[in-house]
Amino acid sequence: MLLTGVTGFVGAHLLNELLHRTGSRVHCVVRARDDGSAQARVDAAMAEYGLAPVDTGRVRAYAGDLAQDRFSLPEELYTRLASSVDVVVNNAASVSAAQSYGTIRGANVTGTHHVLRFAARTRLKRVHHISTLAVLLADDPVARQGLEARISGRPEARLRSSGYWLSKWVAEQLVNTAAERGLPVTIHRLARVSGHSSTGAWARGDFWNRILGGGLRIGALPDTRWADRFTPVDHVAAAVVELMLQPRSTGKVFHIADTPVVDIADIARWLSETGHPVGILPWEQWVKEVASDPDNPMALLIPHLRQGVSGRASDVLPSEEQNVDCRRFREALDSTGITFPAPGPALFGRYADALGLPSDHPETTAGSAL
Ligand SMILES: NC(=O)c1ccc[n+]([C@@H]2O[C@H](COP(=O)([O-])OP(=O)(O)OC[C@H]3O[C@@H](n4cnc5c(N)ncnc54)[C@H](OP(=O)(O)O)[C@@H]3O)[C@@H](O)[C@H]2O)c1
Predict the structure, then answer these.
(1) 90 phi, psi to nearest 5 deg
(2) Is 118 in the same domain as 135?
């Protein structure tokens, strides 16, 4: 199979899960100088998230760029892969909320177009497209009801306010067209992918990881209505790979999001219960405190947040008030034992511990005394 975005947070965990659950060889296109550096980047990603090193007999990394024609691979290699691969996981994307549509279109839209073209070349390949619940912000009855189905309609203003969300919506439209033309595709719409449920390892640049890290540094979270669905990355990878292994998932859309919405007040309470005391500060005061702490992980985002943000969740996060139907996902995973852990003190205490910040939690205090 071909897996894209393997040097990223979700991709590294998908690779780990695929290697455990299948006997497949996995080919990876990685932005790098040469194939050796591409392989080194895969190894570094696995190490960064505390995952087992990959067996190079099963995982091959090639230097390439999805935004370029033929992934910028040599013609002979591209043709060989196109005739030997039978499944493609289109996971790569530029996920920066701060970048414009024009900046990330190459990776997210052109990249998807190239992946679909690859999937149709020589032999039809099954495609698993990794998307986001944010596409439900479209002006479309299916989207408004939050259904696990293809979305047409038009992107509404809020969706268009983010280049990233818009690019993921456009990418889904390309996938829909490919499906209508006979390509066997499955769409997996992810919620917030949070840290690993055991180790707490989480993408450093993630918005919520920055909020937790930044909030713990100053002992306060902002008084906002920010809320989200938190799905630990190891459970997301297990769910997506399980769905990939089910032949009946072809042609379907799944919401990998079967967990309740939690808000910032819940999180503050859970952190405090596990010995990471945080209060709640009024928005303006919180922003001021963060801005005066240059090493704060949120400091970088302050200019972005100040632009018209009044602390309303809808300004920066898509999913807190949306209808999100997960019935198909739940049915498909019924009896597999794969579920999401209930969000609560255990999970968020682990995230705080993984951030390695000051705590009066007995275990952490003992550990840091060594
Ligand atoms: N994390 C979440 O909470 C979340 C939520 C909903 C949906 N998703 C979806 O999940 C997928 C993975 O996200 P993530 O959080 O794992 O992001 P990430 O950590 O930033 O990883 C993105 C990956 O895509 C690769 N990539 C980007 N542009 C590329 C290009 N032109 N050619 C080749 N590779 C390219 C990156 O390579 P480099 O290392 O070279 O940059 C990296 O490996 C995305 O499709 C995203 O939309 C994520």
Answers:
(1) -90, 80
(2) yes
